[in-house]
Amino acid sequence: xxxxxxxxxxxxxxxxxxxxxxxxxxxxxxxxxxxxxxxxxxxxxxxxxxxxxxxxxxxxxxxxxxxxxxxxxxxxxxxxxxxxxxxxxxxxxxxxxxxxxxxxxxxxxxxxxxxxxxxxxxxxxxxxxxxxxxxxxxxxxxxxxxxxxxxxxxxxxxxxxxxxxxxxxxxxxxxxxxxxxxxxxxxxxxxxxxxxxxxxxxxxxxxxxxxxxxxxxxxxxxxxxxxxxxxxxxxxxxxxxxxxxxxxxxxxxxxxxxxxxxxxxxxxxxxxxxxxxxxxxxxxxxxxxxxxxxxx
Length: 296
Description:
This protein starts with 17 loop residues before the first helix and ends in a 6-residue tail after the last helix. It is rod-shaped, with a radius of gyration of 48 Å. It is built from five helices and five strands. This is Methyl-accepting transducer domain-containing protein. It comes from Paenibacillus albus.
């Protein structure tokens, strides 16, 4: 906040005296309490001439006292000293490291008829800016962690989706193998039926042959027995394959459901990541505005 200090303009140019300059400085000192009330935050005010401190108006929050009469040399390299040396407004922002509270110091040269006669310095408590800065730094760090987590989630979703594709591919291959086995079982059952029919015909012929066909009848009965056993076994295998086929179809449906859900969650993570990026941009903008660089 820049302060407007009184300018004495009642004398003609070239007629200024040291008394006039002193009156000007005193008028600024007399107005210091009024100036201090104009600040929204607690503010220290200091008036210094070219050699020493003329007045110091403290504030409870900043535990600093500069006695009246303190020589300029004791304030070397402060904004007050720099403003006098450079004859221009100087600004400085500091964090809480030095005095336990953040502050902004502004030193405005006091000129009388164009001649530098002193400086008016304000030191304003900067708690709100420091709070915003700290919150921004914390927010930026949190967003960075959340972004890393969302990236890990996205990577995990991609990996799971790839594994689901492999599982689906393998279950499809198994279904194809089951189909091939069922075809083979169909052939086995046909052979069993044919063998059973041949065994039956052989048994009939053996019966016609009487005692001469007894041995042949035993063989025919064994053929029929083996044919029936083969048919029963193939039926059992077919039933088991049908059950496996049903379970694999269920697995495929489950895999497709999971893939669909994963795709949905992946999109949600992308939206979340986009939101994090927006928050990160906002946090960085706050840091750019209230960042640590402004403290130097």
